[in-house]
Amino acid sequence: MKTVLPLFAFLAALAVPAVAADDLSQALPPKDMTWSFNGVFGTYDRGALQRGFQVYKEICSACHSLNLVAFHDLAAPGGPGFTEAQAKAIAASYKIPAPPNDRGDIFDEKGNRLTRPGTLADHFPPPFPNEQAARANNGGALPPDLSLIVKARAGGPNYVYSILTGFGQTPPHGFVVQDGKYYNPYFAGRNISMPPPLSDGAVTFSDGTPSTISNEAASVVTFLSWASEPQLEARHRIGFEVLAFLIFLSGLLFLSYRRVWHGGHEDTGTLHDYPATPTEKH
Ligand code: HEC
Fold this sequence. Notes:
Number of helices: 8
CATH architecture of the domain at 30-69 and 123-229: Orthogonal Bundle
Largest sheet: 2 strands, antiparallel
Strand content: under 5%
Bound molecules: heme C
Strand order of the largest sheet: 1-2
Number of strands: 4
CATH class of the domain at 30-69 and 123-229: Mainly Alpha
C-alpha cells in the first residue's frame, strides 16, 4: 500500500491538467465520418464531387481561393467527371484579369480591372486581389486557400466537415464569444472568424439531393478532398495492380521452385528431370 499511494497521487496529479485543459477553449475531436474515398479501394463519389463543386462555387468562393485547381482538372480522370464542354463553359463563366490591352491599360475608364473569360488552362481566380483585401473583408482574419486544406489539417475530411457543421451550438456557460467571431467547438480556441457558411436550402442541387447542412458539408468536403489529392483513385488502382501482380508472381515463383527443385531433398540432390550422372551420347 505504501508504494501504491504515491503512485496514485502521481497519476492524479497528471490527470488534473488534462481536466483543466479539457475546458472551454480546447477544440473537440472531429466527428467520426465514413467517406467513400477512404480505404484501399476508396473512390470519390462523382455526384458528391459535382455537388461539392457547386457548393464551393456558390458559397465558399466568395471568401476562399482554390489556387491550385485548374478548370481542365474538372474534366480530368478521377475528378468530378464533367465533360470537356461543361468544364469549358464553367471556365468561361469566370472572369480572369486580362493582360494589358492595345493602349497598355489594365483598367477601363471607370477604373475597373479589365477581364477576359476563363479558359480550360486557367486556375480558379481568387476572390480578393491580395491578402490585405482578404483580411479587410473578413474582420482581420485570412480565409485560407482551400486547395490543400483537407491534407493540411489533422483530421482531414472529418475536421473540415466538423467545422462546417459545428456552428449554431450554445457556448458552455462562462465561455466568451469574441466580438465579430462565432462559437465553433471544433476550431482551435472555439472562436472562429468565419460566419456559418451553410444553411438548409443554401444551394439547389440539380440531382435532387436535399440541401441539408450535412449534405452540403459532405459534398464540399468530398470536392475539397479531391482538390487536395486528385490522384487518389489512380494511386489506389496502381496499388491494387501492383499487389495483384506480386501475388501472381509469387505463385509463379512457387510453381517454378516446385518444378525445379522437386525431389531435390529425397534423392541424392539431383534435379528432377535430369539423369543422376551425365551420360555421354554415342
Ligand atoms: C464570408 C466569408 C467566408 C465564407 C463564405 C466561407 N469562409 Fe471559410 N473561413 C473564412 C475565414 C475568415 C476563415 C478564417 C477563420 C479564422 O481564422 O478564425 C475561414 C476558415 C475556414 C477553414 C479553416 C479552419 C482552419 O482550420 O484554419 C475552413 C476549412 C473553411 N473556412 C472552409 C470553408 C468552406 C468549405 C466554405 C464554403 C462552404 C467556407 N469556408 C465559406 C471565411 C469564409
